[in-house]
């Protein structure tokens, strides 16, 4: 056992590598009430979270793979708002979920140079299933969300540094601003993957179960926050946009070996591009989850991959862009901001307003069968693992009709209570007429609606016209199904760790926090410190330092398109080890002749073709006798017959720029 106390600037890197328990405590920085400011100030920034190859990917559990490179980069986008006596930072990450480790450590770092308090720091996520795990606040999900287990302190420290840096940048660049929020219904891009449990809800009037019903048994609302900031000419220009939408990040197959932001990369990319084309200014555009637990992207059967993710993502992004423009007349600087954060310690109290959760969480057998679009072969057909196989006798215990995996006697021996989520962060940000409720669970469509209604009742008369629940915010704690959905024991019910009253418990806490926010204007119901004890194992690639002559390995070649993948040009090269390259910085771009022998940036829809977009994939092929082999693929290349093209491997990791031969 190893103990370590976080104090001052001590980094997570001081935790000992290996299968041991690392203990650390984060002291909360106490802050007083902020001075009031007139009007609205806003800033925005983004940070690259893309790691080197070798990290376990989170979302598909043991069916996932270690990342071998990236197709679309992972990023954190920050929108900072300051008005009255409130200061907020809405962080939207291309990760499986938020993390209480990240929230507390980032809050401590930014407290030194910003006025953003812990209660105002919201760590949301797109819930892509193709980003690394190993940064969460519990052993259970650091073990079972990924294909390998353990908390990686080096990777977590990297995330803290990148996110905190973006928050600081957003705060230090803030300027007078205006904002507006609104929503639009987006139909046809999502489907309910667990329709039978959904229609059991007493609040669902349409009980049809035929195939077409799954496309309307979703939460179609896309919420959008638009922020414009003062421009040099005295007017206002686009600064940021934040989207809340309900859809799983599962448009790309679990067999894919690259890191990617799934369909969210294309949603955000399309919205960003359209804003820039319309206004001539590039905004910081991000997104995070809504009520998505039983909602999947409506990909065509057998077509999971980037083509389908791009088709769906760009379609939703186009709808978001239309809403963005429609909000222009509503932009205002007269905005009320407020933030509330309550950490619910289940070891202290698991009861609120007469609703009590079981003392012990339990993993259901149906979890092993997998969700309906990614089932486990053979097992998903066998009761009690098969979806819809609840207990019919002795179902009156705290876990109701759930078949407890391994039995209620054996599971506690294998999965100790301390490994599960025991502290549940509940957060509400009030941004003008919009209230964002952050919960650490994957929340079903109907669970989310009930939480929203509970919070809205407490906020009635306060000028809030829209309440949006955001799943997997500030931590990952499994699923939250309604009692009716839970009774059928599909994947969502089996993964609802705290039993059939979970939704009622969360709704009660949302209502209570909203009431307290109305009464006090700010709520920070957290302890003076937060302690963690996690099994530690390092996966983040280490620098090797062995010098390697960087060289192109042959000429670029073209590969034809297939039924579910674009055609691409590929180039391979030899370089230093993955840990000696900075993967969160530019690695590859494409250049084109602009007349004669003069080279310039290749472009697609007005933007440069480089690894910051969605057309280049950069991957690690493997070690060689001298150095490591890498490849870059340019998908769906836009070529003109009068131009030649070439790959440029950017200067990176103390290696010089490398230019390939031309191709056309």
Global shape: globular
Judged by helices, strands and strand pairing, the structural class is alpha+beta
N-to-C span: 59 Å
Query: How much strand?
Result: 25-35%
| Largest sheet, spatial ordering of strands | 8-7-6-3-10-12-13-14
What is the residue-mean pLDDT, rounded to a whole number?
94
Radius of gyration: 24 Å
Question: Mind describing the biggest β-sheet?
Answer: 8 strands, mixed
Number of helical elements: 12
Unreliable runs? 1-8
The counted number of beta strands is 36
The level of helicity is: 10-25%
Number of domains: 2
What does this structure look like?
The protein has 12 helices and 36 strands. By secondary structure, the chain is α+β, with helices and mostly antiparallel strands. It folds into 2 domains: 2-31 and 48-343 and 419-536, no CATH class; 551-659, Immunoglobulin-like. The strands form 10 sheets. Strands 8-7-6-3-10-12-13-14 form an 8-stranded mixed β-sheet. Strand 33 and strand 34 form a beta hairpin. The longest helix has 21 residues, at 306-326. It is globular.
Outline:
The chain has twelve helices and 36 strands. The chain has 664 residues and is of the alpha+beta class.
Question: What keyword list fits this structure?
Answer:
single chain; 20% helix; Immunoglobulin-like; globular; alpha+beta; 664 residues
Write the layout of secondary structure elements.
Layout: E1 2-3, E2 20-27, E3 37-48, E4 57-58, E5 69-70, E6 75-84, E7 86-93, H1 100-110, E8 121-125, E9 131-132, H2 139-144, H3 153-172, E10 175-185, E11 190-192, H4 195-198, E12 221-230, E13 236-245, H5 263-279, E14 284-289, E15 295-297, H6 306-326, E16 337-345, E17 351-352, E18 355-356, H7 366-369, H8 407-414, E19 423-431, E20 434-438, E21 442-443, H9 445-459, E22 466-470, E23 479-480, H10 483-488, H11 491-494, H12 502-520, E24 522-525, E25 529-536, E26 551-552, E27 557-559, E28 568-575, E29 588-593, E30 599-601, E31 603-604, E32 607-608, E33 616-623, E34 628-635, E35 645-649, E36 658-659
Parallel strand pairs: 1-2, 7-8, 13-14, 16-24, 20-22, 21-23
Antiparallel strand pairs: 2-25, 3-6, 3-10, 4-9, 5-33, 6-7, 10-12, 11-15, 12-13, 16-19, 17-18, 19-20, 26-28, 27-28, 28-34, 29-30, 29-35, 31-32, 33-34, 35-36
Helix pairs in contact: 1-3, 5-6, 9-12
């Amino acid at each position: 056992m190893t103990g370590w106390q976080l104090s001052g600037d001590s980094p997570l890197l001081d935790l000992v590598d290996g299968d041991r328990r690392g203990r650390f405590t984060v002291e909360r920085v106490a802050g007083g009430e902020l001075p009031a400011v007139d009007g609205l100030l806003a800033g925005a920034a983004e940070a690259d979270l893309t790691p080197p190859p070798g990290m376990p990917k989170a979302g598909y559990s043991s069916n996932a793979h270690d990342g071998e490179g990236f197709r679309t980069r992972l990023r954190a986008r920050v929108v900072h708002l300051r008005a009255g006596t409130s200061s907020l930072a809405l962080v939207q990450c291309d990760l499986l979920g938020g993390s209480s480790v990240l929230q507390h450590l980032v809050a401590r770092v930014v407290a030194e140079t910003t006025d953003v308090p812990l209660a105002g720091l919201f760590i949301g996520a797109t819930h892509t299933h193709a980003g690394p795990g190993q940064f969460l606040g519990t052993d259970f999900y650091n073990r079972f969300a990924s294909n390998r287990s353990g908390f990686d302190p080096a990777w977590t420290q990297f995330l803290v540094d990148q996110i905190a840096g973006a928050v600081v940048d957003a705060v230090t660049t803030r300027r007078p601003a205006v904002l507006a929020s609104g929503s639009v219904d987006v139909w046809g891009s999502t489907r309910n993957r667990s329709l039978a449990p959904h229609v059991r809800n007493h609040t669902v009037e349409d009980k049809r179960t035929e195939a077409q019903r799954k496309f309307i048994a979703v939460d179609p609302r896309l919420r959008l926050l638009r922020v414009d900031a003062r421009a040099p000419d005295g007017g206002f220009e686009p600064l940021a946009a934040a989207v809340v939408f309900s859809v799983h990040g599962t448009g790309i197959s679990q067999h894919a070996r690259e890191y990617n932001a799934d369909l969210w990369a294309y949603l955000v990319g399309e919205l960003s591009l359209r804003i820039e084309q319309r206004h001539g200014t590039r905004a910081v555009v991000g997104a995070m989850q809504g009520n998505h637990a039983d909602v999947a992207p409506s990909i065509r059967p057998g077509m999971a991959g980037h083509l389908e993710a791009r088709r769906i993502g760009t379609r939703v992004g186009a709808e978001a862009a239309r809403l963005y423009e429609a909000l222009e007349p509503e932009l205002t600087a007269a905005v009320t901001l407020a933030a509330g954060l309550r950490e619910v310690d289940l070891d202290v109290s698991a009861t609120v307003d007469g609703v009590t959760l079981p003392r012990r969480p339990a993993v259901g057998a149906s979890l092993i069968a997998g969700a309906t679009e990614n089932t486990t072969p053979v097992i998903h057909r066998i009761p009690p693992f098969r979806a819809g196989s609840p207990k019919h006798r002795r179902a009156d215990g705290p876990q109701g009709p759930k078949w407890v995996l391994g039995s209620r006697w054996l599971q506690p021996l294998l999965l100790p209570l301390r490994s599960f989520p025991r502290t549940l962060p509940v957060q509400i940000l009030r941004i003008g007429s919009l209230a964002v409720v952050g919960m650490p669970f994957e929340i079903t469509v109907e669970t989310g609606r009930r939480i929203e209604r509970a919070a809205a009742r407490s906020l009635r008369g306060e000028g809030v016209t829209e309440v949006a629940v955001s799943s997997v915010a500030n931590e990952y704690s499994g699923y939250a199904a309604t009692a009716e959905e839970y009774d059928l024991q599909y994947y969502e019910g089996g993964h609802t760790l705290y039993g059939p009253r979970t939704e009622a418990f969360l709704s009660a806490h949302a209502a209570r926090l909203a009431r307290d926010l109305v009464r006090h204007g700010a709520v920070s119901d957290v302890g003076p410190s937060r302690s963690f004890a996690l099994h530690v194992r390092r996966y983040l690639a280490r620098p090797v330092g062995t010098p390697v002559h960087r060289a192109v390995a042959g000429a670029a070649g073209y590969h034809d398109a297939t039924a579910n993948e674009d055609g691409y040009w590929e180039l391979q090269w030899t370089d230093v080890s993955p840990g000696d390259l900075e993967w969160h910085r530019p690695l590859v771009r494409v250049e084109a002749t602009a007349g004669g022998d003069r080279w310039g940036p290749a472009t697609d829809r007005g933007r440069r073709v480089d690894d910051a977009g969605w057309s280049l994939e950069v991957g690690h092929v493997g070690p060689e006798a001298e150095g490591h082999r890498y490849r870059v693929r340019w998908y769906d290349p836009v070529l003109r017959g009068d131009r030649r093209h070439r790959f440029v491997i950017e200067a990176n990791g103390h290696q010089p720029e490398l230019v390939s031969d031309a191709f056309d």
